[in-house]
Specification:
By secondary structure, the chain is mainly alpha-helical. Strand 1 and strand 2 form a beta hairpin. The chain is globular and about 90 Å long. It starts with a helix and ends with a strand.
Length: about 600
């Protein structure tokens, strides 16, 4: 009687230290009728292949598996390879999957669309999008499933622009997008708030008659809600014949996230059976834009609040600069044994970072270790940010180096930590290292931190200008008002504010009060009265009477001995009812933060 596969696996496990034992057992089993039939048959079971692949890797399989397969005499067909790749994907057998890829290329199965799509999904699952893209490019005729897999892979990894670029390529190809293509593209458009592109996708959905799909309609709802187009979201919702719970929740979310709290409450009350997500969307919107006490009342009336419900309240307090109350809610959450997730810790650490309350930060760090979340990307990034803002850059760097996985946010908070603490050398070192990372590109925030580091150190202005131009020309990143302000501060430090005025107009920020305020501050630093008068006039024109403008101009006129102009400015302040705000400071002692004001 033929020996069972499980018996051979057990025997193999018992002989893990004997390398040849594994190969011989596997070869003997492949020669047996059972596996040979599976290699040649056209129908089989995924489970059988999962078991086989697992057995291949029991003894650190990749290399030995290749030997066993090559020497066994049985050559797997496309169907067998498809199942082996799927099994490698499901079991995350990375070395074996890569060995299979090599075998597939050598044996000529790379042109098989089903095998190649399985390989594509394998690389997406192990977060190797570059390899996934290479597999896709080498496919002679990718199917719509292949296109959808890569589009979804980019979207799920946060590379939304790459996902949309691929979707637009699909539209230009001979293959017609299906409902899955449109849902992935809508999700990416929603994340980037690209309303016009979302509307264009909507029109194509109508043309193809896919608007009746509940999944597509719900994605349209989500897209319009995230793009702030509530009226269109309501129109889509009203046209859905069979509204499911996702439709209702998407509508509540669309209203709540766009400050339409009364409408959100109306949909919530009309909903047949609100679930936890319905309550959480309402709590989140109310905590962000309404009265936080109302959000607490909704949470109190909720049948079974979860960590997301409590997180919304904590985040609401943190966003209102009421971090001590957020800490109070955090301690209550702990006392009630509510399960804390990575977003709980991320929110509270953000509040602690704003307070620069190091002792509380250390306590929360201990909690993250206890919950086993200190190595997660979200919590790890928040911890790095907290330590950096508390001046503990070495601790932040140690955490950064210890994280098993790092995303763009992680890199940015570490670069920001070095930048805010004046370490230009480490900023540039980390920035260069980041550019060598696979599937990772610097964004606007990265360059903002690099420019900030330039302003904190005596870096030549031309070096900062090179980084700024590289951001625009090499990386295709549109400069924001914040980038413009950073460059203005640098020019002010070098006494070249005349260049800043020209830059503001060239970049199209002439109607932005923020950049003119930055220019006025830069003029105050370098003492350029002529440009300061232009900037002050612009700020008043765009933002009205501003305490900052009067104080800067009064001080500058005093420096130049123009006491008559000083009197005029101070009279304007009195006539406009503008008063200079009192400065304040705080210090943490024995876990208590004491605030003192200059007026006291």
């Amino acid at each position: 009687m033929q020996r069972s596969f499980s018996e051979l696996v057990q025997k193999c496990q018992q002989n893990q230290n004997q390398n040849q034992s594994f190969i011989l057992l596997l070869r003997r089993y492949i020669h047996g009728n059972h596996v040979y039939r599976i290699f040649l048959q056209k129908e089989g079971e995924d489970e059988e292949w999962s078991n086989l692949t697992w057995a291949f890797t029991v003894n650190q399989g990749g290399y030995r598996t290749e030997i066993a397969l090559s020497e066994a005499g049985a050559k797997p067909n496309a169907y067998a390879l498809l199942h082996l790749v799927r099994a490698s994907t499901n079991l995350r057998l990375i070395p074996f999957g890569q060995q299979l890829h090599t075998y597939i290329l050598q044996s000529g199965f790379g042109s098989n669309v089903f095998v190649s799509t399985a390989l594509l999904n394998f690389y997406i699952r192990i977060d190797s999008l570059k390899d996934a893209h290479n597999v896709f490019v080498e496919m002679p005729e990718p199917s719509v499933v292949s296109w959808n897999s890569l589009i979804s892979g980019y979207a799920h990894s946060g590379q939304f622009r790459a996902a949309l670029d691929l979707f637009l390529q699909l539209e230009r190809s001979d293959i017609c997008p299906d409902a899955f293509s449109f849902t992935a593209a809508l999700a990416a458009s929603a994340k980037l708030s690209l309303l016009r592109l979302g509307e264009s996708i909507h029109s194509k959905i109508l043309k193809l008659g896919l608007e009746w799909s509940d999944v597509v309609a719900n994605c349209l709802l989500d897209m319009y809600g995230k793009c702030g187009h509530v009226k269109e979201a309501i129109r889509v919702f009203d046209n859905i014949i069979d509204k499911d719970i996702i439709s209702w929740n998407s509508m509540i979310s669309a209203c709540a996230r766009n400050r339409k709290l009364e409408q959100a409450l109306g949909y919530f009350r009309n909903m047949p059976e609100p679930d936890t997500i319905s309550y959480n969307e309402l709590i989140n919107g109310t905590a962000q834009f309404g009265n936080i006490e109302d959000a607490i009342r909704i949470l109190s009336s909720m049948p079974s609040p979860n960590s997301s419900s409590w997180n919304a309240i904590i985040t609401g307090y943190v966003n209102r600069d009421r971090s001590w109350e957020a800490l109070d809610w955090f301690t209550r959450m702990q006392a009630k044994d509510i399960e804390m997730d990575q977003f709980t810790f991320s929110s509270i650490l953000s509040g602690i970072a704003g307070l620069a309350a190091l002792k509380w930060g250390l306590l929360i760090h201990c909690c993250t270790i206890k919950y086993g979340l200190d190595k997660s990307i979200v919590v790890g990034s928040a911890l790095i940010d907290m330590y950096s803002k508390c001046g503990q850059v070495k601790n932040a760097e140690m955490l950064f180096q210890s994280l098993p996985r790092r995303n763009l946010v992680t890199w940015n908070v570490m670069i920001s930590g070095f930048a805010h603490n004046g370490n230009f050398t480490e900023v540039i070192k980390l920035f260069k290292q980041m550019k060598t990372e696979k599937d990772l590109k610097p964004d606007g925030i990265t360059f903002l931190n690099v420019l900030l580091a330039c302003s904190h150190n005596q870096v030549p202005l031309q070096v900062a200008i090179q980084y700024f131009e590289s951001m625009i020309e090499e990386h295709g990143i549109e400069p924001t008002a914040e980038h413009c302000c950073s460059m203005i501060r640098l020019m002010g430090q070098r006494g070249e504010v005349w260049r800043a005025e020209r830059m503001i107009l060239e970049l199209g920020f002439g109607s932005c009060g923020l950049v003119w305020r930055a220019l006025l501050g830069a003029c105050g630093a370098c003492g350029d009265l002529k440009v300061a008068e232009v900037a002050a006039g612009k700020v008043i024109e765009l933002e009205g009477h501003n305490e900052f403008v009067y104080v800067i101009m009064s001080n500058m006129y005093a420096c130049y001995g123009k006491w008559g102009d000083v009197c005029v400015v101070r009279k304007m302040m009195r006539d406009s009812g503008v008063r200079k705000g009192a400065g304040c400071s705080w210090i943490e002692m024995e876990n208590v933060i004491t605030v003192s004001s200059m007026m006291e």
